[in-house]
């Protein structure tokens, strides 16, 4: 059956009190008409009183009722009608004309509701969806609330192709031809026997027919019939990250010349292989995963999963040098998969953040045991035809790792994935600290070469007031940081840790390690057949990590935490200069502040640094550590790198010391300040691809020149911007589709008369949107603001703001007007057609 979006004409409300009292009051509460997808949480008022605290960025949860009235034609009495919900957060309960039709507890997998038993034909019908996200402390990150992904309706004959009933594989791929296998699952929910032809047609990206097959099938009443076809494609255009060629598969059920049903699926022809000698190979070519973990929210518009937002995020990650994403820590959206297919981004799709042991008071561990098999089935069905998906991850930082029952469950989940899809690999992301927490004392004693009694004495001394204690818990390196540094490496290599991880890690096709970098190389000697992936790693460790990947074929890549910033886990990498700690409830911090790309889409210096380490950028890159915080101490988390921006505008700090970092993979770099050389220094892998220069700030120009073999081979510059600035606005689109979902991203910055962006300048900007669209979100990347993304007035942060404009469902024109005191108004005109 063909899916059609069913997103318009919904009403959302948030009834107060108990469900029974809300029903007795007729459900009376303020309602708002919305077009899905819709994130209810982003419109909540943030409060430091919420139990979620920094985990969701101080956004509270709630119970939300979504209703839609629709006319059901009499003709549908002979049809099969099904709704698909791509994502409802969370504990969805679906009612049709007041009767319970089905539900789904997990917030990240799609599910189907058959409406046939509940519809009133020839009448107006009502559907109500209750999304219950009121049990706070249910997520470690910003989850969003409500129907935040698409809803689709499928209306078909009693004999039809089942939902997700077309599965496509490419078992044999040669240079001159490929075999495409199409498995079709038909359902006959009627009482008649049918003799039909299953007609399958393959076409390339230009619409040319590439292959065709017809199969005669007898379909009996109340039966499900599988049909398998093998179709030859000559000179196939392969899908890979550089040339993401796609084909379309059209399957029709034809009876006596009449088409009873039709399904279209896109797919790619490609092969993936993996072993410890050649690593990961895509179409026979070795490829290292330049990876980014990502959460599912889209920054200032929250968790609303709109195709344009997912496409933009995927494209920006690709442009920043990544070729792979990990959907942490839950199944990725269909919209993101479509974007990855078309842009050429590999995907590691992940099942869950927990299994049977909770990480939060009300998280999914309470339902996992009862629902994981269904979740795996839905996840595989969603992913099956997407060439971008190369691997499933069954769980993240599972706490059952060191137990025999944990290994058994890992084996069961892995086998379930393989039974449903034998074409992709399965791994699990192992965090040694969480896995071995019950044995931490024993492990630390082993690392430090002391007894448990000595350990207890040292811990007591450490806890004593400083003036009474001259002792600290001190490993051989003088540190007990188990996330980074020598002690972390000693922990990762410890033989007790090895023993605790052994059975669990042996279950999957490859071993995924979170923050256990020191194991990546050593495991090849211990387990020569094992393939390793850094499923989650520290940004600051990129040089060491990428060197390991380049030099060890059995290590197939690195997935940094993280490529794109996100809401929730607030303060993960915020720079505090007032004694506060990261990863703790610091109101009003709402953003993790850890991404290479911030929540507005602006690339931070770390992004260019990573691109240089990957060998993808020849030009040097200049970044300046914030001059206003020179010499100040801060408490760093392991996810922090440097508090720097690409700016040489520091009004009021003339003559003050400044640290300038130049990133490059050349042989040498030279830094010039106003034409005067500050020195020429060797650079490259030996210096971790950057060098630092200390100078004093004066308005003017910094210029970095890199040299290879003594010859100049690229330069970068920073110029002081003038204090008098004007608003500059730029929309990534001039035309939107009148589908109620298309988005235009309008970047607002402050530039001087010469076009230089002033990152230091601060201006309050007001936006108004009128015409054939609306303002979906407005805001900056400031992690510490108390402002809301619904507001139309925001102050620039590091020189920038972002407005997201959403098209309506009627053709016309959108006018977005931006104003700021002392600046000329700016308008953006966007056509909707």
- What's the N-to-C terminus distance? 28 Å
The helix/strand class is alpha+beta
CATH class of the largest domain: Alpha Beta
Radius of gyration: 28 Å
> Helicity, in percent?
10-25%
Strands side by side in the biggest sheet: 21-22-23-24-25-26-27-28
- Nearest-integer average pLDDT: 94
Family: Belongs to the glycosyl hydrolase 2 family.
Organism: Parablautia intestinalis
Keywords: Glycosidase, Hydrolase
GO molecular function: hydrolase activity, hydrolyzing O-glycosyl compounds
Distinctive features:
5 domains, eight-stranded parallel beta barrel, 13 helices, hydrolase, Ig-like_GH2, six-stranded antiparallel beta sheet, 45 strands, alpha+beta, Jelly Rolls, Immunoglobulin-like, GH, 833 residues, TIM Barrel
Textual characterization of the structure:
With 833 residues, the protein is α+β, with helices and mostly antiparallel strands. The chain has five domains: 153 residues, Jelly Rolls; 112 residues, Immunoglobulin-like (Sandwich), CATH 2.60.40; 288 residues, TIM Barrel, CATH 3.20.20; 93 residues, Immunoglobulin-like (Sandwich); 107 residues, Immunoglobulins (Immunoglobulin-like, Sandwich), CATH 2.60.40.10. Helix content is 16%, strand content 36%. The strands form ten sheets. The protein has an eight-stranded parallel β-barrel, surrounded by four helices. It has a six-stranded antiparallel beta sheet with strand order 3-2-4-9-6-7, with no helix packed on it. Strand 22, helix 3 and strand 23 form a beta-alpha-beta unit. The two termini are 28 Å apart. About 2% of the residues have low confidence.
């Amino acid at each position: 059956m063909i899916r059609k979006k069913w997103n318009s004409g919904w009403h959302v409300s948030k009834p107060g009190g108990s469900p029974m009292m809300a029903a007795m009051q007729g459900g009376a509460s303020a309602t708002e008409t919305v077009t899905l997808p819709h994130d209810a949480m982003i419109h909540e008022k943030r409060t430091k009183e919420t139990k979620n605290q920094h985990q969701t960025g101080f956004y509270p949860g709630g119970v939300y009722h979504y209703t839609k009235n629709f006319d059901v034609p009499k003709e549908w009495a002979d049809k099969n009608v099904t709704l698909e919900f791509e994502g409802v957060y969370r504990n969805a309960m679906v009612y049709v004309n007041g009767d319970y039709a089905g539900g789904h507890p997990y917030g990240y997998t799609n599910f189907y509701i058959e409406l046939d038993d509940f519809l009133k034909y020839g009448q107006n019908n009502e559907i109500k969806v209750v999304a219950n996200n009121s049990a706070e402390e249910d997520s470690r990150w910003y989850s969003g609330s409500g129907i935040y992904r698409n809803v689709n309706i499928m209306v078909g004959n009693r004999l039809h192709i089942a939902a997700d009933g077309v599965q496509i594989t490419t078992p044999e791929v040669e240079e001159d031809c490929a075999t495409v296998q199409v498995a079709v699952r038909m359902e006959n929910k009627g009482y008649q026997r049918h003799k039909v032809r299953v007609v399958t047609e393959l076409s390339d990206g230009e619409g040319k027919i590439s292959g065709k097959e017809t199969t005669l099938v007898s379909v009996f009443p109340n039966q499900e019939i599988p049909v398998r076809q093998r179709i030859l494609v000559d000179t196939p255009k392969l899908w890979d990250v550089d040339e993401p060629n796609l084909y379309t598969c059209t399957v029709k059920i034809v009876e006596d010349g009449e088409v009873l049903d039709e399904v279209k699926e896109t797919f790619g022809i490609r092969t993936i292989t993996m072993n410890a000698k050649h690593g990961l190979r895509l179409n026979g070519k070795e490829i290292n995963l330049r990876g980014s973990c990502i959460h599912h929210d889209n920054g200032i518009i929250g968790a609303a999963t709109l195709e344009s937002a997912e496409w933009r995020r995927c494209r920006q990650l690709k442009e920043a040098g990544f070729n792979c994403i990990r959907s942490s820590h839950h199944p990725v959206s269909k919209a993101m998969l479509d974007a990855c297919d078309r842009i050429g981004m590999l995907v590691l799709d992940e099942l869950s953040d927990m299994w049977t042991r909770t990480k939060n008071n009300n998280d999914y561990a309470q339902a996992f045991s009862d629902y994981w098999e269904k979740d795996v089935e839905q996840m595989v069905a969603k992913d099956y035809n997407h060439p971008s998906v190369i691997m499933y991850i069954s769980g993240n930082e599972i706490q059952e790792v060191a137990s025999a029952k944990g290994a058994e469950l890992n084996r069961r989940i892995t086998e379930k994935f393989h039974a449903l899809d034998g074409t992709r690999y399965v791994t699990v992301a192992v965090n040694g600290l969480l896995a071995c927490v019950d044995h931490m004392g024993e492990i630390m004693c082993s690392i430090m070469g002391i007894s448990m009694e000595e350990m207890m004495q040292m811990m007591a001394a450490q806890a004593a007031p400083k003036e009474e204690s001259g002792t600290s818990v001190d490993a051989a390196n003088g540190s007990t940081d188990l996330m980074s540094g020598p002690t972390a490496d000693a922990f990762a290599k410890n033989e007790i840790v090895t023993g605790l991880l052994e059975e669990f890690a042996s279950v999957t096709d490859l071993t995924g390690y979170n923050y256990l970098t020191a194991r990546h190389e050593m495991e090849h000697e211990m387990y020569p057949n094992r393939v390793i992936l850094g499923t989650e790693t520290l940004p600051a460790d990129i040089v060491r990590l990428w060197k390991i990947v380049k030099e060890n074929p059995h290590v197939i890549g690195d997935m940094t935490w993280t490529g794109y910033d996100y809401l929730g886990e607030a303060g993960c990498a915020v720079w505090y200069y007032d004694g506060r700690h990261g990863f703790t409830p610091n109101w009003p911090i709402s953003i993790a502040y850890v991404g290479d790309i911030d929540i507005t889409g602006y690339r931070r210096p770390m992004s260019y640094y990573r691109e240089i380490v990957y060998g993808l950028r020849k030009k040097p890159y200049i970044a300046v550590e914030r001059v206003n915080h020179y010499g100040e101490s801060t408490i760093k988390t392991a996810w922090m790198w440097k508090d720097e921006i690409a700016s040489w505008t520091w009004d009021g700090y003339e003559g003050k010391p400044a640290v300038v970092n130049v990133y490059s993979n050349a042989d040498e770099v030279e830094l010039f300040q106003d034409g005067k050389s500050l020195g020429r220094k060797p650079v490259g892998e030996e210096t971790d691809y950057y060098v630092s220069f200390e100078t004093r700030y004066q308005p003017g120009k910094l210029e970095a020149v890199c040299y290879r073999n003594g010859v100049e081979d690229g330069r970068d510059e920073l110029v002081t911007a003038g204090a008098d600035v004007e608003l500059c606005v730029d929309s990534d689109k001039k035309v939107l589709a009148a589908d109620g979902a298309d988005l235009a991203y309008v970047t607002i910055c402050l530039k001087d008369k010469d076009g230089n962006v002033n990152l230091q300048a601060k201006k309050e900007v007001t936006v108004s949107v009128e015409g054939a669209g609306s303002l979906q979100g407005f805001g900056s990347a400031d992690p510490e603001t108390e402002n809301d993304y619904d507001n139309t007035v925001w102050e620039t942060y590091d020189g920038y703001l972002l407005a997201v404009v959403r098209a309506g469902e009627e053709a016309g024109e959108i006018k977005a007007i931006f104003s700021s005191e002392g600046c000329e108004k700016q308008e953006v005109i966007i056509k909707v057609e």
